[in-house]
Structures are given as structure tokens and as C-alpha cells.
Amino acid sequence: MKMNKLLVEKNSGSDIKIKIGNKILGEKEKIVFSGPCAVENYENMKDIAVKLKKIGVHALRGGAFKPRTSPYDFQGLEKQGLEILKSVGKETGMIVSTEIMDTRDVEYALDYIDIIQIGSRNMYNYSLLKEVGRTKAPIILKRGMSASIKEWVYAAEYIMREGNENVILCERGIRTFETYTRNTLDLNAVAYIKEKYRLPVIVDPSHGTGLRELVHSMSLAGIMAGADGLIIESHINPEEAISDSRQTINMESMEKILKNVKILEKII
Amino acid sequence: MKMNKLLVEKNSGSDIKIKIGNKILGEKEKIVFSGPCAVENYENMKDIAVKLKKIGVHALRGGAFKPRTSPYDFQGLEKQGLEILKSVGKETGMIVSTEIMDTRDVEYALDYIDIIQIGSRNMYNYSLLKEVGRTKAPIILKRGMSASIKEWVYAAEYIMREGNENVILCERGIRTFETYTRNTLDLNAVAYIKEKYRLPVIVDPSHGTGLRELVHSMSLAGIMAGADGLIIESHINPEEAISDSRQTINMESMEKILKNVKILEKII
Amino acid sequence: MKMNKLLVEKNSGSDIKIKIGNKILGEKEKIVFSGPCAVENYENMKDIAVKLKKIGVHALRGGAFKPRTSPYDFQGLEKQGLEILKSVGKETGMIVSTEIMDTRDVEYALDYIDIIQIGSRNMYNYSLLKEVGRTKAPIILKRGMSASIKEWVYAAEYIMREGNENVILCERGIRTFETYTRNTLDLNAVAYIKEKYRLPVIVDPSHGTGLRELVHSMSLAGIMAGADGLIIESHINPEEAISDSRQTINMESMEKILKNVKILEKII
Amino acid sequence: MKMNKLLVEKNSGSDIKIKIGNKILGEKEKIVFSGPCAVENYENMKDIAVKLKKIGVHALRGGAFKPRTSPYDFQGLEKQGLEILKSVGKETGMIVSTEIMDTRDVEYALDYIDIIQIGSRNMYNYSLLKEVGRTKAPIILKRGMSASIKEWVYAAEYIMREGNENVILCERGIRTFETYTRNTLDLNAVAYIKEKYRLPVIVDPSHGTGLRELVHSMSLAGIMAGADGLIIESHINPEEAISDSRQTINMESMEKILKNVKILEKII
Fold first, then answer.
1. Whole-angstrom Cα distance, residue C232 to residue C210?
2. Which listed residue, A233, D124, D176, D225, has the most CB atoms within 10 A of its CB?
3. Which pTM does this prediction carry?
4. What ipTM did this prediction achieve?
5. C-beta atoms surrounding B260 within 10 Å
6. Which residue ranges does the record assign to the DAHP synthetase I/KDSA domain (chains A, B, C, D) (predicted)?
């Protein structure tokens, strides 16, 4: 382990702020990313985006390449998904973000999307981290489902070391023995990162709980733990979402969260 | 498993509210318990209690019987600790709470204290749960460090079934692979319990993080996750606390937490 | 933590050997404990004991006091269970072992049984550990389901410090994220204990796997990891066992295990 | 999830046996892979290979691309490492195996090595799994450090579905709360796989324990749990190994393991 200070540590410079469209992540205003788990088709994506923009969501998410446990499950629309995201992003004027899983897709993906997500299952994919480190795009680095905070910030260091300091850490829940919730959202890690490191951190209460009825509470808890933003799975008809339905919330719930986040912003 | 509804489930009755001195736990006002990890001596306990009462803490905690990993470590002042708690409680007019570890101590302990804590390591001590279920005192039931929510609420059911419905669930962090924090505070569990069960739930951000610099953030996060109260280790000189020093906060920090909890209460 | 050597450490004396009937646990011959999860009634217990003795099992186990997650589940025959164990033990000339959960039961229990088990859920019940430490009986100390090796051997130290060095450590699986097996049998811990500590260690492949089809393999793996013995749940009709049926094996399987353990003994 | 049978399940065909040089993995004879954690230089690799071949090791391992937590730690000799492995493999007539981390390296790597390892941190790298599935080489698929058995066999399914059935599952320990050992070797998983699936499974007692003094016991325990082989880190001078020194064993210890594995083979 390098004994000198890491780029990710507080004493290596001022806290990093990242431009997300016309907003800045890492400042007083909390930035909210939202969208369906997977890009299903153009119409849904467009409808969802229009509604989300209207209620104040800052950036759109949607999976084009889906990392599924089983090779027989829907793998995502892939390139077509990127095309849909690009169109919808343009038409609504929203920043779009999606997960990229393969080093060979990094370069051309940036012709379609603005922000690259490194999924939880790829946090240790060091080849991929180095590859996105050579771009200039903001990178949402999801914590590995059983990654220690140490491994997580070192993963960020892999990216930053290549020249890209626009790393957004994302706490999305860790794997534990508990079975009532899909993962255990580790807000300690959010508070710890705000104390010790320079990077902004957002919270994903969707994967973090796996239950839509807990998303509101845990979004607000995440903000109070120190999160700079949230990334939440939403859909016009959650019950019909092609994946992650159980944790996806509807537009009304999204609107309530945004409203309450604004209230918390004022008092923080 | 019993197929009928459990006493602890929401459809078994209205949400349970518990009298803590002249306050009610389970209503809008968040109840705060605080005090040192261990009762060290009369003077410290008295000074701490006086200060805590002054800043608005509702009930005093302090360990008389300490469950230590090693038999060679300070086991607590035991009976003398109970005596100190009783005196200090009387002199300051504060409700006092302490952990009881042995079935044989339950009955006489209530001559000294008002609230019995079942520690994390004793959540599965069914003999002890049945014993405290036969009293009328409020019982703080700390979640086992690796107990599932299911096991935890069934442990509460052991107590309630004996006739004592005054069970206060306490989330104090679970054991995970993470080593930067002492435990992983599982606020999902707090939100889940508020959704599905009748019992009030409080959060212990002290054991839950193990780091005093995270106690403030995680206290507020806990409140937003839905907690009815907090239980926090505090001391006049945390550095000198005989145990759990690293996670113990000082009076100034306690005051700040209480102030911010009040602010959150208003907006909730 | 005490800086001097612990009683449980190798440099505090020679390896501890414990008399189990006319056998010695801790020597070349592996000692096998077996019996049903719960003492169900006299006839079953007697039949099982007779068969087990015949195939070479050294000591009988059976639960009289069952630590159940739910208070509505069968709690065991309790005192009546002790009476059955005593009778059957006498009639078959077998050593009997059962779990005791309450400090108040320790003394009289020894009028009925020879060996006291401290269950996984009570490994941190320090009052109980001290109490059994004041007896002379062999104590099977099951590892807490999420107890570190350190906490486990310190729990043994609690017992030894009171004067009773007859502590048998029992690895019975730890709680992890894996759901296909009930627990994760941690044989590393068995090998580690044989390297560093003085106490004998046995393996429970029944709770350790939760699946009867894995009990044979894991028994033999446990022996090769260094275990001094095994403790296995068996029944004449496993499908009809009142608890833990899924992991209970029949007499034929027990016989096969004993036979293969003997073979391994020769080559070790 | 696909409801039909998976290629990896027993009812999809007979158990899969894989050619490793002139040996068959999956039959009575246990196959042993060994070598240093990292390819350090040509001389060491050559010396180690010569000695390992002499004592009966079947295939050589050595890391050319090292997945390090920190980007500042030795990343491996990379392409030069592959060249060394190829030379040494040829000169000693040994099968060589190394980890490949990037989809772009898969094709050319097979000009240098015989077997590709997918490391624990890349078990969820579905792009990489599909890529190696399109080759004909044997693939050692290490279990993710917190991957469930289900996710693990589905990862194997990703590879097999592309046409490559030569998948060797490797249990290398899972991440748990225990800190005395580096990982917790989950031999239950080995026994479970032999019961339910068609693929051969080998055990890595080096990463699985992290302590060289436990490697012998856990190797033999792994064989009794049902493993078809072992993969062990060894070095002429473990203390001087550039990485993983603490778990690396010397040639004398390797010889002892091979000898005892042969003995176990006879009695199984």
C-alpha cells in the first residue's frame, strides 16, 4: 500500500465538485438521479424522463447493459438502449447515465451518454476502472456489495490516478445475513466518507433496501448521513417494470422525496 | 412458527407507546437516553447526569454489569453500580436504565433502576427474556449483533407474551465484514420496523459506528429513518472513559445533537 | 485485554484432555456424540440410544431445553427431558449431554446429566459461563453463530478461570450471506484452534450445514481439519424428528460415518 | 431465472471431466496446481516449477496480471509474465495457468498459457465470462468473495452457455466477520457442488485461510469434503514472495501435502 497520501484523501486537495448538467454535485443542493432499472423501450423511457424532469430530477438513469445473475435473464437492450438514452436525453435536455460493463464499450458509450456507472459487481474490475479513468466523464462508482470502505476508495484511486477526478461514490447497500431487505444500506460509510475523503457520495436507497416502502425514509436518512445526492429507481408503473420492480417507486413517491429533500437542504 | 398474528405485529393492536418519566416514547417527541458506557464512580455519574439533564436528555444510561469479551476486563461495579444509578436518578429526577445480564438479578434490580436493557449479546437469552417479561418495567431490547429482524421481533414476542408489552427495540449496528466502523448501523431495520411492527424503536449510533465523529450524522440519519429516540454514550471527558472511549462523545456534542433532533422533529 | 497468557493458550500448559465416560477426548481416538435434536419421549430416546451405542457412538445428546426463535415453538420437555436423559443414560451406560440455558438450572441439571452444553445463542451469556465454570462437569462450548475465534476462546477463558478446565470447543457453523446451507461450517477455526490453543475441539456438521446429505462429507472434512470429535444429530426416523429434521441423519448414515472416522484415525 | 435445467446441473448430463495435461480432473486422482502468487522473474519461476514438477504437482500457477486493492501496489509483470510462464511451461513440460482480467487479453493469452483463471474479484464480470466461454481452454472460475453458491454456478453457466464446458469451480474462501483468518474457506460449498452439479471443484487453502500453518490441514479437509483438486501458493522462499507471503508455503510443505493427498486418495 502506498504510504503517501492518496488522491482520494482530504489532505490531497479540496473537496471535489462535479458538474452534472447545470448543477454541481458536492455543494449545498442535493443532486437526484432517477429512472427505471432497465431501458425497456423508447416510449417508456421518454414518458418517464419527461415526468422526472418535471418534478425536478436532475439526471436520468436507465440500464442498457444489465448485469444479471443468470445468463438467461434479460441482459438489456445494449447498444439500442444507448441509442434510446441518447435520444431521450437530447429531447428532454437531461443528463443521462448508464452502466458500462466492458472495457471495449467505454469509448463509444460516451457518444451516447454523459455519465458512466461502474456497477457494484464491477467495482474490482481494475481494467475497467483504468479505462474509465482515461476519459473525462463523471463516473458513478458503486460500492462492491461486499467491498470494504478501504477497497472502495482505492478503487476510486485507480480511476483518479489515470487522470479523471470526477468520481462519484455511490453507497448501494452491502451484503449481510439479513434477508428481509435485499441489501443493508450502510449509511455509516456515507458519514465516514464525508469525514475522511474528498469525493462526493450519493445514496441508492433502491438496491439499498430492495423494498419500495422503505425508499422514502432511507432517502432522507441518507441525506442526513451526509449524502450529496440520491440515485433512485422509478417508473410510471413500477409493477410492470421489467426488472427490480419490488424496489421501484412511482412518480408520486419520487415527487414526495424531492420535496422533502428540499426541506432538509434548507435546514442542513 | 405460530401462524396467527404475533403480538408484535401491527394488526395485533395499535402502536405501543411507553411512558419514560413524564414523556411518551412512540409519539412525535423523540426521546433521548444518554450516559457513560460504564458507571465508573458516584461523582462522575452525578456530574454527567446533571449536565445531561440540563441539556434536555430524557433518561440516563450507564452500565453496572458490563458484558466484556475478556473475563479480565472491568466487569462493572455491579451492585454498587446499581446503587449509584439509584442515587443519581433520585437526586436528578432522571429515569435510569441499565443492562441486566442474569435472570437472578432481574427482580431486585427494579429496586434500583427504572428500565432494564437486554444487551446485544443476550438477545437470544430466552430465559432472561421470559424473566423480564414477567415484570412491568420498560425493556430496551438491543438487537443481537447478527440477529435477523425476524429473530429480533420474535425475541420481543418472548417478552410480550409473558405480559410485558413495554418493549423498546434498539438498533445498535450489526456485525459485517467492514472494519473501519465497529458495527454497521442498519437503519433499513428501523424503517422496516416502523412499517411492519407496533413497537417503538430507538437507535444507538455509538455502538452502531464505534467512532465519535460519526455519532452526530448517524443520530440524525436514524431520526429520519423513523427512530422514536436515540441512546448515546456520553461523558464529560470521553478520552478518560473507562470503556468505549473511542465512540463516546462530550457534552457539547450531545447538546448539538439534541438541538438538531428538535429541528428535525418540527419538520417531520 | 489481559496481556499475560490466557489459560486457554498453548503456553499455559499441556493440551487439555477430557474424560468422556471411559474415553479421553483430545487423544488419537475421535469421540463421537450423537442423538436427536430434541428429547421427544422416552421410547424414542431409548431406541435411539440403544442403536447409537451399538454402532459405537460414545456419548448421547438430546435437547431438553430448546432455544427456539419463536416462543410458540416447542420449547423442549424441560425437566421431564432431563429425567428421560438420566434414565436412558443409566440404562444404556452412556454419557449424556444436554444444553442448559439458565443459570438457575445449572446445579440441579448435574443430578441428571454428565455434560453441559452451552448453546451458540448463549456463548456470550457470561453469567451462565461463570456458573458452569464453578462446576466440574465437561462443558461443550458452542461457538456463537457470529462469534469471532477471539471471542470464543475468551468465552472459554471465562469458564476456565472459575476453575473448570474441562471445556470442549464446538464449531457448529457461522452465520454468513449464503442461503443454500443453514450455516457455514468454519473448519479454518478448527485448524486454527488446534494450532494455537489447548482445548479440544469438536465439529457439529448438522447445524454446520443444515442438510443431511452433506453431513458425511463434512464430518470427515472436520476430522482432517483437526477435530478431536464430532457431534451429530441422528434419529431412527429423521423425517419424523420434531425439530431440525432436514439436517438429521439416520442410523445407517451414522454407522457409515463412524466406520470412516475409524479409517481416518488410522492414517492420521 | 430460467426454469429449465441449467447446463451446470447434474441432470443435464454426466459429470464433466477436464483434461489437464495428461491427467483428468474429476476422476479418482486429485489434481494439484501450485506456484507463487505472482510471477516475479524468470529464475524464480523456473526453479519453483522444476521443484514442483519433481514432487508431483500437476500444473503451474503464477500471476501475471495481479488484481491489487491499491493501484500503487505491484500489478504484475503482465505480458512479460505471460512470456515467462510460456517459457517455463515449455521447458518443464508443465501445464500453466494464470489469471486474465481484461476481455481484450483473452485471445492472445492463450498463445502463452493453457488455463485461464477468472479471479474472485471478476466472478461477476459477465463480459469476461462470455469471452472465455468462447474459447476452448479450461477455465478456473474462482468463487466471488461474497458470492452465493447460486451466483457462482450461474456464473459458470454464462461460460458454458457460450460453448465452453471446461469450467473448474474453485472455492477460495468467503468474506465473513472473522479476522484471524483472511477468508473463511467454505467447504460446505464443495460438498454441495459435488452433490448437485456436474462441474469439478478445486480448493484454494492459501487464500482460503491466509495462514501458511493452516494450509496442510485445510488441503486435506478440502479433499475429504469432496474436492477434485487443490490450488496452493508455494515458493522456494515464502518469506521473500513479493505478495501473499503469509499464506505461501515452501517446497517441503508442498511435498508433505502431495504425499498425504495420495494417501487419502487410496482410502476414498
1. 11
2. D225
3. 0.96
4. 0.96
5. 17
6. 18-262
